[in-house]
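Preliminary data (for renewal application), NAP complex.
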Amino acid sequence: MPYPHLLAPLDLGFTTLPNRVLMGSMHTGLEDGRKHFDRMAAYFAERARGEVGLMVTGGFAPNIEGWAKPFAGTLATSGAARRHAVITRAVHAEGGKIALQILHTGRYGYQPFCVAPSRLQSPISPFTPRELSASGIERQIRAFVRCARLAREAGYDGVEVMGSEGYFINQFLAAHTNKRTDDWGGSYENRMRLPLEILERTREAVGRDFIIIYRLSLLDLVPEGSSWDEVVTLARRVAAAGATIINSGIGWHEARIPTIATSVPRAGFAWVTRKLREELRAAGITTPLVTSNRINTPEVAESVLADGSADMVSLARPFLADPEFVKKAREDRADEINTCIACNQACLDHTFAQKISTCLVNPRAAYEQELVLRPVLQNRKRVAVVGAGPAGLAAATALAERGHEVHLFDAAAEIGGQFNMARRIPGKEEFSETLRYFRRRIEVTGVKLQLGRRVGAADLTGYDDVLLATGVTPRNPRIKGQDDPALAGRVLSYIDVLAHGAPVGGRVAIVGAGGIGFDVAEFLAEHPGHSLALDPAAWRREWGVADPAELRAGLARPQPAPAARRITLLQRKSGKPGAGLGKTTGWIHRAALKMKQVEMLAGVNYEAITAEGLWVSYGEKRADAQLIEADTIVLCAGQEPLRELEEPLRAAGARVHLIGGALEAGELDAKRAILQGTRVAATL
Ligand code: FAD
Ligand code: NAP
Ligand code: SF4
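Predicted structure:
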């Protein structure tokens, strides 16, 4: 059997899970309001069909005080429980199991009714919480218990009590946020009372044959977070209080250390779970322990289970990317898994923008009922797709999957378009997985691929439809002096640097601080061939993550390695460079470049490029140009659509569809490219 540890059943005493895979809780936005229960049912049913062992819903608040935002999903009445039954029935019909996450956000609540152990505003919410009285705390505990009882009434197989990531329960546990002097604060025994009372009373209310997962923060990564002794004590007491499974949480939301971004090494925190598991086993506690964070392939999952880091693995975003992750692993088809690249662009970034979460590599996620790839039974078409970047790949494989005859052309020697540059950025190695997935998908669906073939309009006759996915060309910023033959090799485009490996000097000025400018800066700041994402010890040093047994909450002083070059990153706009980067990842890119002493300049005018470097001025008068000394200037000034084939094809009467960068280069990203490709493919 492939992946023997991953696919081994787990006996919980009163029920058995078919494998060791937990689909971790993700807030998709479908939880909020009443109108999405059918959609959630379809979403979870698709993942149950994909054979995940146990799923956890997005967070539901046990009461109004616990809301993440106004009118957030709440389970507090029997009426609400009846609405949930549509989800549990759909999951059980597919043979799956599902637990409801009880999420009380405490001072993280983005709403005026939020409460907390102490009146301390969090850095991530504009609302100051109300400090709870002792009777207020009692009301919160009862709300947790009621929510669990209602979850059972709704048909759930269990609940997950959210005790990590800096939410309400975590706020009681840590002195960072608990300044109380009554029975709920002060000593750790007092601070621990809240989760223990919730668990004991919940167990009493739901009976023995109901799964209770407790999500425990193993590494707070904030000052005055829990010490390792406290974590171990809590885990023992949580097990004794009736938890069936202990899930692990890493880092509070306000922590300034990345925990799930693509630049975090794979399974980069499994060592902490392993450390706890050893302590628990030594004390004779066998409660299954779940490890999480950046586990995105069956190989990685298998290895952390095989080396004793945990009893189960939690994968969350990988189930947005591919609902059939477990099924494909079981059938030894891991190479067909659409791997989560941990970009956050369509999941967490959407949550923070109040949009429904989906997935960059799988736009059907949470849109299972809307974006359907129906098989064509008749009128099979012959379709040409020009360009094998993300847009063309998504379109071609979806069309072929439906049954059309698809011919895919690309001028380059390999598929992937710009993703071949993206994947060379240190910390973006995961982007290669998307290309591996599409390469295999082309074989499985029978797309007829021709690489190394730049096609013209004359090559595209005889097709029912032509999809132009020809992407973009770099924008020329036309800076005075940039084309001076004396400066040959010193003024480069990002393509010269990333695709062609052009030599770059020790002092670099980068024109344009968009996504590509930032990526180029990270590429040039790192020593060739090195990536922190592939060097977990160096990654921990760089960001300041320590053994929690040595330093409280795992927080150490960051010790960044020196940059390979002196880099200046520039933009014409005033305002923060990188403001357009992802909501949940932009801060990581800015912090990473700061650690490499990259200078970021905004509000510049580009005056000229000379042998000394790049001359810039500020303001409308453009007086007093200043020199940024540079051996190399890299142009990352945005992009323009490449669609020279459109006119001649239309003139010849072809049915032409533009997708991805060929349609619109402004604010283009792979999310839009893949979505457009898939949407067009669904309609032909
Ligand atoms: P492209 O990827 O540009 O592909 C177009 C393809 O068409 C090319 O392979 C080209 O060879 C081919 N072609 C063109 N003309 C012809 C012709 N006449 N005949 C045959 N073939 C032809 N996006 C994100 O979402 N997240 C990121 O983190 C991210 N990071 C990036 C980092 C870098 C360094 C770069 C350069 C880009 C990054 N992007 C990122 C952007 C993303 O890669 C693009 O948005 C995406 O590739 C656009 O897809 P596309 O299919 O429209 O075009
Ligand atoms: P971009 O994000 O639009 O940035 C273009 C940069 O060039 C801006 O800093 C812009 O700032 C500057 N610029 C525009 N016109 C200019 C001109 N005429 N002269 C000089 N500078 C000019 O585009 P990009 O960096 O090329 O990235 C392309 C796409 O890939 C983006 O849409 C991005 O979303 C995507 N991408 C995403 C990521 C990610 O992490 N999510 C990473 C890489 C790429 P000023 O106009 O202020 O100078
Ligand atoms: Fe993973 Fe990115 Fe998809 Fe989110 S959007 S699930 S991070 S691939």
